[in-house]
Amino acid sequence: MKTMRKIFAVMLVVGMLVPGLPVNAAKKDSSPAVTSDAKEGVVQVNTVVLDAEGKKHVVYGGAGFLIGDTEGTEYVITCNHVVNPEKEIKDAAVEFYEISTEEDPTFAIEVVVEGDVVLTPTVLTSSDDMDMAVLSLPQPIYTRTPLAILTSDTYELDDVTYKAGDKVFAFGYPKEITYESQIQYYSSSDVSSAEGKIVDLITFEGIQMIENDVDADFVTYGGPLVDVNGFVIGLNLPVTDGDNWCALDSTKMAKVLDGLGVRYAKVQAQPVVEEKEEEQEVKDTVESKDKSSETAVQVEKPKKSGVSESLIMILSLAAVFVVAIVVLTVVMILLNKKKHSGPKAPKAPQNQYQGPNYDMSGTQTVVAGAAAKTVPDFAPQQPAFSSDETTVLGADALNGSNEGETEVLSGDMAQPEIKLGRLIRKRTEEVIEITKSDFVLGKDQNNADYYIDNNRAISRQHAIISAGRNGAYIKDCDSTNGTWINGTKLESGRLVLLNSGDIIKLSNEEFEYQV
After folding, report:
1. Distance between the two ends of the chain, CA-based, in angstroms?
2. Is it the case that residue 499 has pLDDT exceeding 60?
C-alpha cells in the first residue's frame, strides 16, 4: 500500500508538468427537474375484483410508467405480479370484501387517471421470468407525459452509456396498495422518489439487470428507474440480495417492445464523428485557400491536411508521461522487494454473525476456516425468476457433521422437557409453535415443518431450529438468500443459540422468536 501511494504521488507531480488539456464541463445537477419531469410519466396500476353488483374493489396495486405516443397508442409498463397477484392474495381479498365464491370471482386491471377515474387496459404481453407486463391503453392520458427509454441498438449491456457509480432515481408510491390499505387511489402529486447509485450491471440467468443501492420501499416495484437526464434505464423489481435492489435493464425491455412493434421514444448513444469526415473538412478548407491565393504576388503555402501540430505535441507529451509512469512503477517495485514486509493484514470480514457458537451438547466451539459469502444471490420477494433453482441441503447434510467442525444433533436434543418456544410471523402476526426438536422452515410443503408459500425468495429448506442443552439453536441450510438474526447474516451451516426477542429474517420474511 505504501508503494502504491508513492507511485500515485509521483504520478500526480508528473501530471502537473503536462499542459492542461481541454475537458468537457461538468453537468449541472438537475435532480429536482429530473424527478419533477419523470413523475409525470408514473401511473398507478391496480388489480381489482368485481362483486355481485359489478362494483370494483382493489385487490393489489403498484406503480407503472407510460411510454408511447400521445397522438397514437400509449402503453404502461409494470411488474407482472402487480397485474397477476398470487392466488393467496386474491382469495384473501375476496374473503375481505365478503364476495360470494359460488361462482368464480371476476378480476380486472385498471390504470388510474386521477383519483378513482380509471382506464381499463388490455394486456399486450407479460413475462413471469422477467416479472414484466406491457399494457395497452384504450386512449392516451393527456395529463401525463410518456417517458423515453435509454438503451442500445445491440440490446447488450456492454453498449449502454450508463455505468456503475452513476446517479439514478426510483419512483413509486409512499405506501403499499392492497385490499386492506386505507388509501387505495393516488394522484400524480403523490408520486414519491428515492435517489441512489448504480452498483453494477449484471446478467442473471440470461436476464440483464441493474443492481443499485436506491433506498426504495415496497411500492416502487413496477415504477421506473431513471438516470440524471430523466431517461428510463430500468424497471424496479422485487429482487434483492439483502443490501441492494435490482431493476430489469432497459435493453431487455427495448428488445421485447421492438419485437412487438411498439412505437415509443427511444434514446441511444450519440454517434461518434468519423476521423475521415474531419479530415475531409480540413482538405476542403485548404483547397479553398489555394484557389483564392492564385492571383496574389506571394502565395501562402497551405498546411498539410491531417493531424495538427498541436495534437502531435499533446500526444507526444502524453506518451512521455506514460513511459515515465512505467519506469517509476518498475523502480518502486524493485525497491519494495528489498524490504521484507510483514504478512498482509487479513481482510476485514463481512457483516456476519460474530457471537458465540455452541454444539448440541452446550459446548462453545469455533468454526475454523469459515469465509464470508462474496457472491450475491438474487431472488424476488414476489413472483420472479430463478426461484425453482434454489440449492437445497438434503436431510443428511442438515443432520450430519464434519470432522473438525461444529458437532450437531447429539442425543441430548430430543429431551422432551425442553421448550423451544414460538415464532411470530411479522407479515401476518401468525403464532407458530415449535413442536419438534428439528423444526424446518421453508417452502417445500413436503419437507418443511412450517411451510412458507407464495414467496419465491424462500428456499425449499431455508433454515432449521434445533433443540440443544442450552435451548433452541438456528442454522441456515445453505439457502439462496440467507438467514439473518437481528440484522446480522448467519454463516451457512453454523449453529447459533436463540434468545427470546431475537428477530429472525429468512430472506424478506421476518419472525420474532419468543420463549
Report:
1. 50
2. yes
For residue 482, which of 503, 499, 457, 500 has the smallest C-alpha distance? 457
Contact 228, 34 (CB under 8 A): yes
Could you tell me if 197 and 184 are in contact, meaning their C-beta atoms sit under 8 angstroms apart? Answer: no
Helix (H) or strand (E) holding 77: strand 74-78
* Rounded Cα distance, 143 and 395, in Å: 58
Sign (positive or negative) of CA dihedral 398, 399, 400, 405: positive
Cβ(90)–Cβ(109) below 8 Å: no
Cβ atoms of residues 398 and 439 within 8 Å: no
pLDDT tens digits for range 204-263: 888 999 999 998 665 788 999 999 999 999 999 988 877 888 999 999 999 999 999 999
- Supply 76's cell numbers: 404502461
Query: Is 249 exposed, middle or buried, given 0-12, 13-18 or 19+ CB atoms closer than 10 A?
Result: buried
Assign 510 to helix, strand or coil: strand
Whole-structure pTM value: 0.50
Which residue in 504, 456, 452 sits closest to 476, CA to CA?
504
Determine how many CB atoms are found less than 10 A away from the CB of residue 387.
18
CB atoms within 10 A of CB 136: 16
User: How far is C-alpha 292 from the geometric centre of its chain's CA atoms?
Assistant: 63
The answer for 261, left when phi > 0, alpha when psi is -120 to 50, beta otherwise, is left
Backbone Cα Rg of the chain = 31
Q: Which residues of 210-225 are buried (b: 16+ CB within 10 A; e: fewer)?
A: bbbebebeebbbbbbb
The whole-angstrom separation of Cα 448 and Cα 438 is 10
- Residue holding cell 390504470? 111
Residue that has been written with the C-alpha cell 392474495 in this structure: 89
Question: What are the residue ranges of helices labelled H in 135-270?
Answer: 250-259
Give CA 36 to chain center in angstroms. 23
Residues 6+ apart with CB under 8 A from 1: none
Helix axes 2-17, 309-338, angle to 10 degrees: 160
Query: Are the CB atoms for 67 and 121 separated by under 8 Å?
Result: no
Could you report the per-residue pLDDT of 410-422, keeping only the tens digit for each? 444 444 555 689 9
Domains in the chain (CATH in brackets) are 33-267 (2.40.10.120), 357-514 (2.60.200.20)
Q: Identify the three-state secondary structure at position 181.
A: coil
**Residue 315 predicted with pLDDT over 60:** yes
Tell me if 217 sits within 8 A of 193, measured CB to CB.
no
Indicate if the pLDDT at residue 84 is higher than 80.
Answer: yes
Secondary structure class of 228 (helix, strand, coil): coil
In this structure, are strands 266-267 and 149-150 parallel, antiparallel, or unpaired? Answer: parallel
Cα gap 283→286, rounded to integer Å: 5
d(CA 389, CA 514): 32
